[in-house]
Amino acid sequence: MKNQDFIVKYSRSINYYETDKMGITHHSNYIRFMEESRIYYLETINCNYNLMENLGIISPVISINCDYKLPTTFGDKIIIEVELSHYNGVKFEFSYKMINEKDSKVVFVGSSCHCFTSKSGKPIIIKKQYPKIDEIMKNYVTQKDT
Question: pTM of this prediction?
Answer without folding.
Answer: 0.92
